[in-house]
Amino acid sequence: MGTVAAQGLRKSFGKVQALDGVTLDVPDGSFFVVLGPSGAGKTTTLRAIAGLEKLDAGTVHLDGRDATGDAPAARDLAMVFQSYALYPRHTVYENIASPLRARRCSSSEIAAAVQKMSSLLHIERLLQRRPAQLSGGEMQRVALARALVRSPRAFLMDEPLTNLDLKLRVEMRTELTRIHRSLGATFVYVTNDQVEALSMADQVAVLKEGKVQQVGTPTEVYERPANQWVAGFVGSPPISLLTCRAEGDRLVGADGWTLPRPRWATAEDGQALLLGLRAEDLSVEQRGDASLSGELYGLEPLGDRTVVDVRVGTEIVKVKARPTVSGTPGERLSVTVDLDRAHLFDAGSGLSLSEAGR
Amino acid sequence: MAVSVDEAVSTGPAPDHGPPARRLGGRGRSVVEIALLTVLAVVMLFPVLWMLETSIKENRDVYAIPAKFFDFAVTLQHYKDVFVAQGDGRTPVSVNFLNSVVVAGASTVLATVLGVPAAWAYSRFAVKAKKDQLFFILSTRFMPPVVVVIPIFLMYRQIGLYDNKLGLILIYTAFNVPFTIWMMKGFVDEVPAEYEDAAMLDGYTRLQAFWRYTLPLLVPGIAATAVFALIFSWNEFVFATFLTSSDSVRTAPPAIAGLIGGTTTDWGLVAAASVVFALPVLVFAYLVRKHLIAGVTLGAVRR
Fold first, then answer.
1. pLDDT above 70: residue B270
2. Which residue of B has its CA nearest to A75?
3. Which residues of B touch A47 (CB under 8 A)?
4. pLDDT of residue B152
């Protein structure tokens, strides 16, 4: 068992409202990612669940039992810190053994458990070293081993891959997914890296300024963002947002362009809208019914693809294209839009209008 | 004077201008430096040197006019006089030394035991009006001891702490605790709180986390802080003079001062007692100098 339920968490540091009513429901055995930019309250949320942060309001239930006032030790959770927080005066062995020592396990049990974890994470040869003698990737593995050495209710991970170089990060992503699958344990994983979130999570909660914006599977968050902010935060290159309004069966852009109004768009006439277009749903190479005309603003070759920046009126639209695409800035272009995959948001509230009609 | 570009930006070998001109920035400065430092060293060290010489001179050489700097007979009699009484048994000064050891040691231990946990608490916990509290604690050090010594003398006489080693221990502790809290808070701030967070998630209580993982990292800081507290207690003169009267309680500083005066002053004894008094702190500070320097620089840097 390992469910974590946070209800209405509120916490302020001085004048800063770090958590403003955060509610999360982490099902047993899931890989739950809390995604958000820095300062969104992700770490505070995790520390609140761990019992390291005293809350202004809200409750934390673990396995259905109210654990709001419990000491961290009583919650039976394990945490991997962003800084790893390895005890500097202790060897790797002692670091990994620490949770078992706290539970007064016998030294033979400890030796067996440490051995097992270190071989799982390939750190056997580091056991007698001290943290200062480890590389970043090794420290990360040791921190992971210290968390995994026992079987807690849930694992809390605070941006554990942020301090690693790119290659190692990609490796560890796969490894963490593998470990999660083999343990079947509950993971609550905090990150500001949307790639990590989309590739590892069963469920993603998107956080901004202490408020949960959307909870859903990675696909849901990417395909059906609940609001303009989530749409802009998730996805690379970022979604292009164009100001427009609904007029009859057309969408009329602030810069004068018109597009057929999608069938599912339930906007009222004259309502100010934002049209969200992902780069992969646009094309400069194919022809279609719906298109925007603009001029080439810039090319961003990325190896496997090229992102074409097209200026439509005063706004820039990012279009994904084949790596072989070419052109000169200022050249007139027509951008074909896949309106079935477009997103519409209310310009005032930022909320998605796409959901109701689909 | 006009300078052509070719001259100013010469690419060929530099023309021979002779040796570089001696200016204040050159070797000339180091001569001045050495001269000034020598004067300073003589001025600073002469009293110490004179104390050492006096302590090993025979009495007639001590009073010799003109003073003898080098050719005098060496004796260790004064040092013996510091510890061994004329007939037998201990001298009053040796008792005073013992008192100093007890008072300085106990007050340092007390101040450390009280101050370190307080510093930890101020560093780690959200305390109401933390800055005001810390300022208040520091403000008790603004006052010179001589300002408060009379009221304390009166209070101590009422409650039986006058001429009592416990009284001195308590007042030195009271003076050292604020200092200990402030200096130790700097050290605790330097130790990431995440070690304790991690330990608590490992299953330890907050106190266990502090004891197992934070305290060992504070040892250099504690050593440095304790040395400063020890030096204060060891050298303290005003309270010791006012709050003690009998030799069985009095500490060394007022006792050595008391050796001067009367009809004759045994300068050899005064010098020897002073040397013996100065040594322990010097030796102790030398032994922990690594921690002392590491501690002082570490505590001073704020992230």
1. yes
2. B201
3. 197
4. 93
Say which DSSP state B84 is in.
Answer: B
> What CATH number is associated with residue A76?
3.40.50.300
What is the edge-to-edge ordering of all strands in the sheet holding A65-66?
Answer: A16-26, A4-13, A57-62, A65-66
pTM, full prediction:
0.80
Mean pLDDT along residues B71-92: 83
Same domain, A151 and A283: no
Q: Is residue B141 part of a domain?
A: yes
Contact across the interface for B203 and A85, Cβ inside 8 Å: no
Structure token pair of residue A69: 């006032």
Q: Which amino acid is at A138?
A: E
Residue B151, domain member (yes or no):
yes
3-class secondary-structure state, position A192: coil
Residue B178 placed within a domain: yes
Residue A74 has a pLDDT of 93
Which of A54, A76, A79 to probe by mutation at the B interface, max B CB count within 10 Å?
A79
- With beta carbons less than 8 A apart as the criterion, state whether A260 and A245 touch: no
**ipTM for this model:** 0.85
What is the nearest CA distance from B230 to chain A, expressed in angstroms?
A: 28
Average pLDDT over residues B236-249: 91
Looking at the structure, do residues B223 and B289 belong to the same domain, yes or no? yes
Domain-located, residue B17: no
Question: Which of A12, A16, A47, A52 would best serve as a mutation to test chain B binding (most B beta carbons within 10 A)?
Answer: A52
State whether A243 and A160 are in the same domain. no
**Do A103 and B198 count as a contact with CB atoms less than 8 A apart?**
no
Q: Which residues of B touch A78 (CB under 8 A)?
A: 201
Interface contact A102-B203, CB threshold 8 A = yes
Examine the domain organization and report whether B231 and B165 are in the same domain.
yes
- Are B57 and B120 in the same domain? no
Tell me how many domains chain B contains: 2
Which range has the worst mean pLDDT, A104-118, B3-17, B245-259? B3-17
Under 8 Å between Cβ of B244 and B230: no
Q: pLDDT, tens digit, for every residue of A315-356?
A: 999 999 998 888 889 889 899 998 888 899 998 898 988 754
Q: Give how many domains chain A has, as a whole number.
A: 2
| Boundaries of domain holding B42 | 28-75
Note the pLDDT of residue B294: 66
CA distance linking residue B189 with residue A33, whole number of Å:
31
Which residues have C-beta within 8 Å of that of residue B147, sequence separation ≥ 6? none
